[in-house]
Amino acid sequence: MKHIILRNRVLLTSLLVLNVLMATRVILSRSVHPLLKRPPPFPHFAPKRFPKSHPCPLWSPSFSFCLATPHKPTTPTIPSSLSTRSCSSLSATAMAASAAADEALAANPLLQDFDFPPFDVVDAQHVRPGIRALLKKLEGDLEELERTVEPTWTKLVVPLEKIFDRLSVVWGLVNHLKAVKDSSELRSAIEEVQPEKVKFQLRLAQSKPIYNAFKAIRESPDWQTLSDARKRIVEAQIKEAVLSGVSLEDDKRDEFNKIEQELERLSQKFSDNVLDATKKFEKLITDKNEIEGLPATALGMAAQTAVSKGHENANAENGPWIITLDGPSFLSVMQHARNRALREEIYRAYVARASSGDLDNTAIIDSILKLRLEKAKLLNYNNYAEVSMATKMATVEKAEELLEKLRSASWDAAVQDMEDLKNFSKSQDAPEADDLNHWDTSFWSERLRESKFDINEEELRPYFSLPKVMDGLFRLANMLFGIDIEPADGLAPVTFQLLHLCSILVH
What we know:
By secondary structure, the chain is mainly α. The protein contains 18 helices and five strands. Belongs to the peptidase M3 family.
């Protein structure tokens, strides 16, 4: 009864909570996406299976053989009994392989009709076959849409959104897993199918029938009857199509598509290098004097990192400790470590990530800038900044004007803040007082704040435990938006057991 009432009266979405709050997001196309109607999300997650495929699926390596099996050879070259046995054996083997491929695809979680992304069951082995099967299905949907398209909302926007939505959700699921559970196998799988995904996206964005249908909507007598939101969607789709190269001639479009493929590859490589460089850095500390000033929670985190790296007896009090470039570890050193040499070392390592050796991004940055300029020129823009601003409510000139306003308005206050830090550090007999550097400002800002307001992070921590913070957050959401947020653990799969699922109830 409770589920029936909720189904009629509330909207359920998922929140993943880690520390304060981690919310999953659904990646949508660049236009404004309406919410697609999905089955009721309340039953416990149970992936649905696709119906059995045809015995000779197009994606099967034995497809051509399947087509040939009904035809009998007219001139046997081997004894008929042997031929019958051999063909039967070969046919059985091929059909078994085809059936196995069918079963694997039918069970692939990326191809299920899910309400919540099945984070707990997707892994690298599902990516190649799952994405390729999905792209093949969406390619067929796109061809059917192009064949039957009409310049109306229901015959154009609705089916187009379904194509956008399915690809965005599935690819977003895969990318999210890579962000939180990165592995060489997952990287390899994504790297292999990414060009195929980009090719389909370009094919979709450069579809002349769809582009012309959107233009026909804008030029129709019914244009003025559309809501502002729908007008915005149509205008945005037309603009995106132009920025995706739909108006380019064949040779220029081919060049544009090559640039897009390379930009996608380089962007992925850039991100991977930064991630690998971040993971690569570790500083083992055995002398507690070197990390004097770090709060107990930071010491505990550093000791736990040491345990995970093989130092089984590490603890917060006696160490050893491992400092990394992950955000919490980096910030704790910058804000609290009294050892200035350590702060400088960690700071320099952080800002120099992926700038040398096998993970050097310098050449990649140069290539990205060069390709972006080439792309802009193909689209008749002076530079890539103009391309970026083409879909925004601003211009390059307005953006620069705003930046200058912010700079001029904040300059005097910033100069005064630095003077305050220098004076305070001098009062504490700091040798670096006359030469404060990037690795000093966070440390002395914290000390100044503690001195002025008598606030200590560790003393405040018990008042801001996770349950109290979450309760306060949910109460605030109720006050501001009139929604209720309740625990919903077990309703849908999560990436890690530390994550908690919540439901948002809109009255």
